[in-house]
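Structure tokens please, single chain.
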Amino acid sequence: MSIPNSPEYQVEQSVASLFSAVTGVNIYTSTRTGAKLFPYITIYAQPTRQLITPYSGVFQMEVAVDYSDSSAKISSSDFDNTYLDAFASLYGTGNTLAFEIQDNSTDIRVYMARISSQSPTIQIAKRAWKRGLVISAIVTPDPTGGGQASLDFSDFLNSQYLAVI
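Here you go.
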């Protein structure tokens, strides 16, 4: 679970806002607890490593986006059509994926984003279809955005300075 000012939380929120045009689908991020109602899209961002040097503030992230629906209520073709609608919303304005994610957030800077894999699966125990994709992104907290700009780096508080490109 990510904290509200963390880069992974900001990426999750930004990617979730890209799916707002997909009708009839619930959107959940990693901060969501409790039951999920079909059909739903889950978004989970996790930093895999820091780039350049330790404590640089430049993170490589893996963002897992999974779409699930009940196999008892929807046909395979309808499931695939909704998945393709969700997939198309990632490139809604015809710009790059990095631009789309960056455009929906003011607290991160996205240098690169691409879809690195897809994974169709069938969950027998839950009688559900699940299809997902993984977005690889390189992000850093935006020093002019609200998240880091609101922090106090004064010597009075003996704060640790963050190196941000």
